[in-house]
Structure to design on (133 residues):
């Protein structure tokens, strides 16, 4: 039976699920190869855990499915999912330490969320002004 590890990453309202299995080093984002993923800054962020892992990432195929959020939120969620998946699949303590030293958000999803809008104002913090004169 083939070993498959499924991991997830979140950022704002973006959720990424990565499935890591033995393969030839292919990485797909929503069924599109990561090499042609646009915009280019988001692609660079998604590639970070793969570059840090080096040759270890060449032996696995990674399929990432992302939903919700914006372009950069999706990119950050994807890189978290990829990094977590690689660490779980390879069971590599050294790789985990490398990721943690480089950027902790590679292994821990960002818990920050939007504040809900309040009834007294136009947004989460803004309040209607009141004049007494």
């Amino acid at each position: 039976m083939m070993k498959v590890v499924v991991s997830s990453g979140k950022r704002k309202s973006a959720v990424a699920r990565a499935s890591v299995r033995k393969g030839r080093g292919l990485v797909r984002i929503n069924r599109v190869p990561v090499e042609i993923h646009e915009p280019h800054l988001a692609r660079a962020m998604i590639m970070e855990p793969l570059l840090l892992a080096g040759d270890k990432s060449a032996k696995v195929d990674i399929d990432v499915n992302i939903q919700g959020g914006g372009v950069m939120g999706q990119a950050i969620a994807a890189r978290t999912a990829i990094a977590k998946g690689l660490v779980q699949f390879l069971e590599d303590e050294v790789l985990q330490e490398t990721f943690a030293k480089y950027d902790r958000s590679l292994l821990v999803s960002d818990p920050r969320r939007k504040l809900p809008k309040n009834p007294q104002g136009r947004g989460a913090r803004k309040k209607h002004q009141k004049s007494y004169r």
Remarks:
- Residues 71-90 form the longest helix (20 residues).
